[in-house]
Amino acid sequence: MSGRDTTGNRAVGTARTDTERSVETALAAIQPWHGKRLEYAPVLGGLQNSNWRITVEGTDTRYFLKIPGAGSETFIDRALANEAAHRAGVKGIGPELVHFDSDTGVEVIEFLEGYRACTNGDFKDVAIPRQIIDIYRELHDGELLTVTKTMFDMIDEHLAQAHELDVKLPQDIELILGEYQVAKQALLASGLDLAACHNDPMPGNFLVADGEPMKLVDYEFASNNERAYELALLTTEMFYTEELINELVEDFYGRADFGLLARVQVCGALADTKWGLWACVNQQLSSAWDFDYHKYGCWKLMRARLKMSDPRWPFWLKAL
């Protein structure tokens, strides 16, 4: 008996690989499912985590199981991620949270039937970022999360990790970090506009379905952060033109004066600095990644320096 049925699911108890055995171990720890027949199948798309679709005997609902990848705990506060995911589920902008193991970080949410993950191609449709802004407004509304971790905290943390791990950074890193310090002081002097933020606009984190509202998933990097940084992450991730950025700033804030535009532009440079350092550190943590994180990180840092060398950079800083 292969353990694999015609739907592509594998029954618990028939694991053949270490990866499948890790899934069965995670499922065995979910008390409400003890004694029930469970089946699992891989879900593609995660960069660091192992993702699975779970079918439980006696229920029409299927579930999504996420097993954290080795080394990911270096960057992720699992309890905070769980708090943010739970809040999103209650607000209806994310799937319902079903199970969370604080020791292992294993998480189970409802499987959103009929939904698919966005791709970079989807983001060429301007309706997509406008839907995301609607989600961000809902996410940012209300009380803050229990933990504040700003883009400055993130960048400084990655700098410490890079030093500790002896990570190779680009030769011009001191120039980038010099401008980072200037931007940090300017933003802190202006006062941060804190909100409960998602902090990770990878296309696959946005799920869409015909006739259904967009959903936002994967709250591993969530924290209280500068509101403008949330929008800046989106616009830098998707290479949006300055014209579209200006339109999205107006959608996001209800106005688009020079001060707000400058705030998003400066935060965009910090977003590339943060994720550039993150990627370089991430490459050092594991050789198992099927992705050149160091090359990606150096490219992000190069783009941060490009924005910092824009003739308008000092005017943006002054406008904060």
Automatic annotation (TrEMBL):
Gene3D superfamilies (alphabetical): 3.90.1200.10, Phosphorylase Kinase, domain 1
Keywords noted in UniProt: Transferase
Alphabetized CDD domains for the sequence: ChoK-like
Cellular component GO terms, alphabetical: cytoplasm
Superkingdom of origin: Bacteria
Keyword DNA-binding appears in the UniProt entry: no
Pfam families: Choline_kinase
GO MF term list: ethanolamine kinase activity
Keyword Disulfide bond: no
Family annotation (InterPro entries): Kinase-like_dom_sf
GO biological process terms, semicolon-separated: phosphatidylethanolamine biosynthetic process
Cross-referenced PANTHER family: CHOLINE/ETHANOALAMINE KINASE, ETHANOLAMINE KINASE
Protein name: Phosphotransferase
Annotated organism of origin: Mycolicibacterium hodleri
Taxonomic lineage from the root: Bacteria, Bacillati, Actinomycetota, Actinomycetes, Mycobacteriales
